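In practice, a research group might receive sequence data for several interacting partners and want a quick structural hypothesis before committing to experiments. The following worked case mirrors that situation: the sequences arrive first, and a predicted assembly follows.
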Amino acid sequence: MGQNASVPSLLLIEDDDAIRTALELSLTRQGHRVATAATGEDGLKLLREQRPDLIVLDVMLPGIDGFEVCRRIRRTDQLPIILLTARSDDIDVVVGLESGADDYVVKPVQGRVLDARIRAVLRRGERESSDSATFGSLVIDRSAMTVTKNGEDLQLTPTELRLLLELSRRPGQALSRQQLLRLVWEHDYLGDSRLVDACVQRLRAKVEDVPSSPTLIRTVRGVGYRLDSPQ
Amino acid sequence: MTKPQDKLRGWAAARKAILSGLRFTSLRLRLVVVFGLVALTAAVSASGIAYWLNREAVLTRTQDAVLRDFQQEMQNRAGVLPTHPSQDELQHTAGQMAASSQRFSVLLVAEDESGRTVVGNSGALDPFSLADVPESLRTAVGKEQSITSNNKYPYHLYWQRIIDGDKPYLVAGTKVIGGGPAGYMLKSLEPEEKDLNSLAWSLGIATGLALIGSALLAQAAATTVLKPVHRLGIAARRLGEGKLDTRLRVSGTDELADLARTFNHTAEALETRVADMSARDEASRRFVADMSHELRTPLTAITAVTEILEEELDAETGSVDPMIEPAVRLVVSETRRLNSLVENLMEVTRFDAGTARLVLDNVDIADQITACIDARAWLDAVELDAERGIMSLLDPRRLDVILANLIGNALKHGGSPVRVSVRASDEDADGGGDLLIEVQDHGPGIPEDVLPHVFDRFYKASASRPRSEGSGLGLSIALENAHIHGGEITAANSPKGGAVFTLRLPRDPSALTETPAEPDGANGNGEGA
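A structural hypothesis for the assembly, expressed as tokens:
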């Protein structure tokens, strides 16, 4: 990850000069190292050169847009992405989450809110207790923070990993979307439940044998989700 | 309670349908009647005239032939009889006369030598007696007329048509000049009568056929008129229902085609007009949407920087010049206000454009309200009367917007304590029913004339306070948020004083969202079993 573990390094991709400058100022004041790029192309280049811990990505970009940038990053990288969307139009949010973003904030964003989201996302990659759990062919190693399926390593983003960890900590118990939002995303009571749904979809695509008929991560109608050992 | 009303309405509708049906058929009926009358008059007068002319022609021809024959026979046979013939002679001659080509009966009357009247008739089978001859005819025949230049003979041939026992006959008589016998003949006109009767039948049938034909023609004419009228009626109704692309097919060049063309022109003009207006409406909405969107970009930058200023203000080092501190504070607070105004504008434009969507989740109402109050530091000013455990499927963010606006409004205009109570009403088996949330303040209440306008955009309750802290959109947005849930907000004054806003939300509005909140809803049915 970053060269300096104590100071997280961020990459801010935003085309508007004023917003870029202001957010850079604000985030630097919050104690982050911030690199900036004005276009998606520049951002992807900087990502390869600097290996930041997290990306804050504007949706409306000239050239390739934020969704496309997000998709391209996800092809090779599992580092956290927070979308900066100017419109809270629901289509934007859904498309953004489907393209692999971990969280989103709506403009005009308050620096403190963005900072809190960044820290929450970064915390998801932190290690914790040292035990492991097995769910069928799925093995979750909490000390190494790795998940293997049939002996193969799965590439999970920190958010996906955290979601799986929270679910695996209470096997067989249904967790509501609001609970998961608090546990994984550290959102307040107004968390967007679509974050959970989108992340569950992505997680299922990676851990389930047949993602369209899940046997591990089950939907509990009217409540939320539950992790089961396949019988 | 509504049953008799419904029945009444049903009756009225039925009556209306019947009336319109009558009206529809009455034009048809009128056309049929008029056509029928015309056909009847024409047919009856034509066949009447034809019958009369035919009858005269037929009868005259028969009569002329018979009379000529009779006259001939009288001259040839009766004329050669002696002045006072015997009964046998008369009988014989009458028989001979009757055997002529025209089949008539003959009666000869004469006086024999002793002055007795002797009568001879033809054939015993059809007795033709003197009684069959009308008195008037006998008198006319027996009368001797004086001979003048115009009248060369003392006796003439007279005839008359009589009906004897329902059968028509021709009776004729004459006297042989020079004191001969008087001869009468009787000819049945039955064949002619039969011919004429069959003619009358034919004419009657022809008249009937003409009537039926005219009725059919009238139907056809009525249909050609009424069908376009009916189509026009349907098209007009569709137009009224807002289907402005309704057009009629124009065929022909008659007045109805003209009417259809006029209708099409009108519909077209209307459609253009409506399209124009909605385009203008759309343009102005788009302008507001674009404008609020454009405002966001600089506002995002300003907001981010304002926070730095705010932190400087709050820092205890006192790094801000006391002279400019009020200016910085003003910028910070006004930026926040501008933010919420733009936020609200965006929200309003989303509702206007119909792009607002529900993001449903199953939440505990009491928890949501508590969190909403807590997040805004209203805990001291709000009494919450809600049991935990009332779960409802709704959009938590939108519920928060509604509650924040209602409670914020109550605190601002009514004053604390604000009482928030939650009730779940009529929960049925499948989790339906409504959720009722009441927000009551202890202020002076809302003036009656303001009450209908509290949800209007930018409506300020008192003109003396033009710059209230709110954006003027809050209650309107709250109402829109309730509507998108399929719910409602009503404002009223409590009898105990203070305003009461009642929010009613359906507990399961999932039918309103096209896409289910469950990401794997399609195959989620079999799960967890």
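Before designing any experiment, note the following. Residues 2-76 of chain B form the longest helix (75 residues). The longest strand of chain B covers residues 167-175.
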